[in-house]
Design goal:
The complex is a heterodimer of chains A (642) and B (118). Chain A has 642 residues and is of the alpha+beta class. Chain A contains 23 helices and 15 strands. In chain A, strands 1, 2, 3, 4, 5, 6, 7, 8, 9, 10 and 11 form an 11-stranded mixed sheet that branches. Chain B has 118 residues and is α+β, with helices and mostly antiparallel strands. Chain B has a 3-stranded antiparallel sheet. Chain B is elongated and about 60 Å long. The chains are: A alpha+beta (642), B alpha+beta (118). At the A-B interface, helix 1, helix 2 and helix 4 of A face helix 2, helix 3 and strand 3 of B.
Chain lengths: 642, 118
């Protein structure tokens, strides 16, 4: 009952605030009148009677405020008024509010965006169950000048049979293929994977099933898995896709399943997975010479739950030592000479690779920037508080409580920071949405990066911290007992005390120092970049574009067939765009059967963690500075002096 | 016994003022001015009720549901806000009276102590 009546009172006080204010004013006026009347009755003159009455009441405003307080509404009331005043003051002082808001927005925006990136790439676990048990399996053979290399079919089968620490192991390779069904042909990244691939990753299909060894018969129709992306984009998210045939390189394959949305391993753009039978592959390409020849497979394994790093080390050593028993084409001495050993790397580290250092540098940069913006905003607030000191002194003299002053500054800084923070969040959203201007593949796991609750939490905490910081310095500075003359001499001029000036100088010095660090850092980076640009490439990259045109092996087997197609394509481009000159390069390599080409490709790139990090935009034109090996035509745009 | 004043916001004093208001209102509905006068008279001028704390106390008590207010005309035909004791207010008055008696008895015993160990 009591609670109810309290709530009722509070609500009515809330909704009838103005009426209640009027009532209170009337009540106080009545009181004053009565007191005055009483004083007159006691024989005072009119002026004295009024004065005494007011004196006894103790200040109309104070009574009114105290009574309002007692109504339990003060908070809400004041909050709204504080906000109104804060808006008014900030609008009146664009010289303070605009740069402060902009600075805060920049600091929070950059920090949030960078955090989101780093969180998505470095911190968040890979999107697979028990992802910390996933490792990349590679080999090193320093004696044969192979820093990093992969697995052969023989080694894969050997490890799969005999490892004691791998719960399961799979191999895969990726390549480009062309989808030739439906309307326009489309180039896609495909992955050839052994059947255990999906088990190792712990993936589940969206619909249908994963391809198995039985789905791969060399030269015949395969059972394939397609990505969720491709399914939606090219096949209209039609669930009846399972069991239907699609055409890859003019060959019909049967879709057996659709991957979960966002499943794109090994390449961020992998769209099709083909099942591989290791036994058949071994029979076809390995035979007896299966050990250390053809180390072109990528290995990925899931560790047993309790495998310690010591055990893994011992297990791998044993596996390599027993290799000659299984495949006599290599001897223990040879392995010894090569320094051949197996290496496992946590999959996340392998994916992130050398991006880690770059990202940490980015974090440091964002941190410096944040500190700088804080120093800047603090300084702006200090200067402003200095200007406001006389105003504050006046307010206090008129009876404003400490609490009220604190709220005044707090409301201002909260407002400033709220606007700045919102802008910052918008900046971060845009930056993340645009993927920071990176292409998928330039930064590993970029596709997984997205603003989430952690990003929001960070932005909000940074904003809260900024608000407290600004309010704190403003309040401290504004209510610092001035040099006595603040009221008298302070009007019309804002002078800072010596200590205050010192503090501000310190802040400016800190800002300049931070700016220097940032500037030096970016200058160094710019210099490295410039030096990279100066490396002699042996050709003129200016105005040159490259493109890559993989041809289906079934139709373009042999050099002549593909060379003539390349000629024809170039001829057509020249005819359509007279300003384009074309050079065919490495035509022989270009003419390679793609099936084989994939193999050689994989060997060349093998085992490099950067594989995931390097930009691969097949089928699209890009600057020739990044020209890669073979199978490429170089176009020169005459306009750009190629 | 110090007079409740705007400066002292001690709980005891605040509570005391509320007790006095409740008592005064139990006699008859009164407006703020009347209350102040009445309490001064009833306490034989020991208490100078400061209006600075009276009106906030009235608001607070109203919020707690002990009193309610009504606009009425005074005997001089002036509009004034009168305060009335509610049922909850009456119960509160009894409670506070008991508390007060116990507390003042305790204080008196302490002050009247004539040596020796307790």
């Amino acid at each position: 009952m009591r609670l109810l009546s309290e709530v009722r009172e509070w609500l009515s006080a809330l909704f009838f605030r103005r009426r209640e204010d009027r009532h209170l004013d009337e009540e106080i006026a009545f009181h004053l009148e009565m007191a005055e009347h009483e004083n007159l009755r006691r024989g005072m003159d009119a002026a004295e009677a009024r004065r005494r009455a007011a004196l006894k009441l103790g200040g109309v405003t104070q009574v009114r405020e105290a009574a309002r307080d007692a109504r339990g509404l003060r908070g809400l009331d004041d909050l709204m008024r504080d906000c109104r005043f804060a808006v008014r003051r900030l609008v009146r002082e664009p010289g303070y509010s605009v740069p402060t808001i902009a600075t805060i927005a920049l600091g929070i925006g950059v920090a949030t965006a960078v955090f989101t990136l780093v969180n998505g790439v470095l911190l968040r676990p890979l999107p697979y169950p028990d992802a910390d048990r996933l490792v990349e399996v590679t080999h090193a053979a320093p004696g044969a000048e192979l820093a990093v290399t992969g697995l052969s079919w023989g080694i894969y089968l050997h490890y799969r049979e005999h490892s004691r620490t791998f719960a399961d192991i799979a191999t895969y390779m990726d390549a480009s293929r062309t989808l030739t069904d439906v309307d326009a042909p489309e180039q896609v990244r495909v992955a050839m994977v052994t059947p255990s691939f999906f088990d190792v990753l712990g993936a589940t299909p969206h619909i249908g099933r994963f391809p198995t060894a039985d789905d791969f018969e060399f030269g015949r129709s395969n059972g394939v898995l397609i990505s969720h992306d491709l399914w939606v984009r090219r096949y209209g998210a039609d669930p009846s896709i399972v069991g239907r045939t699609i055409e890859i390189d003019r060959r019909r394959d049967v879709v057996v399943g659709v991957a979960q949305r966002g499943f794109h391993f090994p390449d961020p753009e992998t769209q099709v997975w083909l099942g591989w039978s290791p036994e058949e592959q071994l029979a076809r390409y390995g035979g007896e010479r299966a050990s250390v020849d053809g180390l072109y497979l990528n290995g990925i394994a899931r560790l047993k739950r309790d495998a310690s790093s010591d055990e893994i080390e011992r297990d791998l050593g044993r596996l390599v030592r027993t290799l000659p028993d299984a495949y006599p084409d290599v001897t223990a001495e040879q392995l010894e000479q090569m320094g051949f050993r197996a290496v496992v790397t946590p999959l996340k580290d392998a994916l992130v690779g050398d991006m880690r250092a770059a990202l940490l540098l980015l974090v440091a940069t964002a941190g410096f920037l944040l500190l700088m913006t804080w120093a800047n905003a603090t300084n702006l607030s200090l200067v402003r508080a200095e200007r406001q000191r006389r105003e504050v002194i006046l307010e206090r003299a008129l009876g404003a409580s400490e609490l009220r002053l604190a709220r005044r500054f707090l409301s201002e800084s909260i407002l400033t920071v709220a606007i700045g923070g919102a802008l910052g969040l918008a900046i971060a959203y845009v930056a993340v949405d645009l993927r920071f201007g990176f292409q998928p593949g330039q930064i590993p796991r970029l596709g997984e990066v997205g603003m989430d609750r952690a990003s929001l939490l960070l932005a909000v905490s940074l904003a809260a911290l900024s608000a407290v910081l600004l309010a704190g310095v403003s309040l401290r500075s504004a209510r610092r007992p001035g040099e006595g003359s603040a009221v008298m001499g302070g009007f019309g001029r804002a002078t800072a005390g010596r200590a205050e000036q010192g503090k501000r100088r310190l802040l400016v010095a800190a800002q300049v120092a931070l700016a220097c660090i940032l500037l030096t850092g970016s200058a160094l980076m710019a210099r490295s970049y410039w030096q990279l640009q100066q490396i002699e490439l042996g050709f003129e990259p200016e105005g040159a574009l490259t493109f890559f045109l993989p041809l289906p092996g079934s139709e373009y087997s042999g050099y002549r067939a593909s060379a003539s197609l390349h000629q024809e394509v170039l001829g057509r481009i020249r005819a359509a765009r007279p300003r384009v000159r074309g050079h065919r390069r490495h035509a022989r390599a270009a003419a390679r059967n793609p099936q084989r080409d994939t193999g050689s490709n994989a060997v060349r790139r093998h085992g490099s963690a950067r594989r995931h990090g390097s930009a691969r935009r097949h089928g699209s034109a890009r600057p020739a500075g990044s020209i890669r090996g073979h199978g490429r035509s170089v176009l020169h745009d005459r306009r750009r002096g190629g | 016994m110090a007079a409740p004043s705007p400066d002292s916001s001690g709980e005891l004093l605040q509570g005391t003022l509320e007790l006095l208001v409740l008592k005064a209102l139990s006699l008859e509905p009164m407006h703020g001015w009347g209350l102040a006068q009445r309490i001064e008279v009833m306490s034989r001028d020991v208490f100078q009720v400061s209006q600075g704390s009276l009106y906030p106390a009235l608001q607070r008590m109203r919020r707690k549901g002990w009193i309610k207010s009504q606009w009425r005309l005074t005997e001089n035909n002036r509009r004034a806000r009168y305060y009335l004791l509610t049922a909850a207010g009456e119960r509160q008055l009894e409670r506070e009276k008991e508390d007060w008696k116990r507390a003042s008895a305790g204080v008196n015993w302490v002050l009247g102590w004539k040596g020796g160990h307790a």
